[in-house]
Design goal:
Shape: globular
Structural class: alpha/beta
GO molecular function: ABC-type quaternary ammonium compound transporting activity; ATP binding; ATP hydrolysis activity
Protein name: ABC-type quaternary amine transporter
Number of strands: 14
Bound molecules: adenosine-5'-diphosphate
Pfam families: ABC_tran
Distance between the termini: 44 Å
EC number: 7.6.2.9
Strand order of the largest sheet: 6-7-8-3-9-10
Family: Belongs to the ABC transporter superfamily.
Number of helices: 14
Oligomer: single chain
Radius of gyration: 22 Å
CATH class of the largest domain: Alpha Beta
Largest sheet: 6 strands, mixed
Order of helices and strands: EEEHEEHEHHHHHEHEHEEHHHEEHEEH
Helix content: 40-55%
CATH topology of the largest domain: Rossmann fold
């Protein structure tokens, strides 16, 4: 079990990006952290294996505070998969997978057996792939090797940070399915970060929706769908299911004509600029009917309403669906 007790993280003094988090992740659970970018998901994840030190509170794994573990032992026993998997390009698939087993001094036979078993379980033929250099693999294949590498030394816990977000839709859904199957079979605890609500609903035993470093709601996909706790959750359910490209900004909403120019020169209160992300716009419009947009000289240039955002997102969905059909 992974237990967060009153955990806070400040990178800068006085500015908590994760605040007073209480969280219990059960053994064998597929636990998804979701939320808009900047909500503190990655920070929360990386505190578990001490890649990021926490500022306040405790994280316990099997009752023992993580600070009491030997760091090497902690890292070896927690698998880790990133979005852009960092495989060693000049090493073979097998060498990449057995980095940690090697350090743990497994025998050659044990390692070979493990590689065979795991490659097969993610749909990569062991004989074809084990001796290939990873630089020769496609993005989807590399990500599969990354998942296998995280599982290689048989850790109880695996942390995954947007592991499938760089993949094309077909590789993504195949790998999602394989990982879900594998997790149930091996009974691992997976903590999984995403900003894609569809992915969260499809994979999670429980989902934790974060916003500004705090938890908005934790529950099973059914609980969240049937009883969203507040407007933020309701709104995220509607809009967060669209896998927005990270680099999309408000500029694109303006360019789509979903914008009302305003002539006022001065407006007090909350505003965004065209260079802000669409994620930021979604968060702002969860609580407001419209958002003021300012230009370079802090002058008001117009506003975007909730309806205009929804129209923009609906257009995005149809574009995405068309590209999937093709
Ligand atoms: P998410 O994973 O939800 O996108 P993060 O945990 O990456 O969110 O970031 C939460 C907040 O902490 C963001 O505002 C981000 O800019 C800030 N942050 C993340 N890493 C650092 C860092 N190393 N130094 C300072 N601020 C950081």
């Amino acid at each position: 079990m992974i237990l967060f007790e009153n955990v806070s993280k400040e990178y800068e003094k006085g500015k908590a990006v994760v605040s007073e988090l209480d969280l219990e992740i059960k053994d064998g659970e597929f636990f998804v952290l979701i939320g808009p970018s900047g909500s503190g998901k990655t920070t929360t994840l990386k505190m578990i294996n001490r890649l990021i030190p926490l500022t306040e509170g405790f994280i316990r794994i099997n009752d023992k505070p993580i600070s009491d573990y030997n760091l090497q032992e902690l890292r070896w026993n927690i698998g880790y998969v990133l979005q852009q998997i960092a495989l060693f390009p000049n090493m073979t698939v097998e060498e990449n997978i057995t980095v940690v087993p090697e350090m743990k001094k497994w025998s050659k036979a044990e390692m070979q057996q493990r590689v065979t078993e795991l490659l097969a379980s993610v749909g990569l033929d062991p004989d074809t792939y084990r001796n290939r250099k990873t630089a020769e693999l496609s993005g989807g294949e590399q990500q599969r090797v990354g998942v296998v590498r995280a599982l290689a030394a048989n850790p109880d816990i695996i942390l995954m940070d947007e592991p499938f977000s760089a993949l094309d839709p077909i590789s993504k859904s195949n790998l999602q399915r394989d990982v879900a199957k594998l997790q149930k079979k091996l009974n691992k605890t997976i903590v999984f970060v995403t900003h894609d609500m569809q992915e969260a609903l499809a994979l999670g035993d429980r989902i934790c929706l974060m916003n500004k470093g705090k938890i908005e709601q934790i529950g099973t996909p059914d609980e969240i769908r049937s009883h969203p706790k507040n407007d933020f959750v309701r709104n995220f359910l509607q809009t967060g299911t669209i896998a927005l490209k990270e680099d999309q900004t408000i500029q694109q909403v303006i360019a789509a004509g979903l914008f009302e120019p305003l002539e006022v020169t001065d407006e007090i209160g909350f505003y965004l600029v065209p260079e802000d992300t669409i994620d930021a716009l979604i968060v702002a419009l969860a609580e407001k009917e419209f958002v003021i947009i300012k230009g370079n000289e802090e002058n008001v240039i117009g506003r975007i309403t909730k309806q205009q955002l929804l129209t923009y997102l609906a257009q995005e969905i149809s574009v995405e669906q068309e590209s999937v059909v093709k």
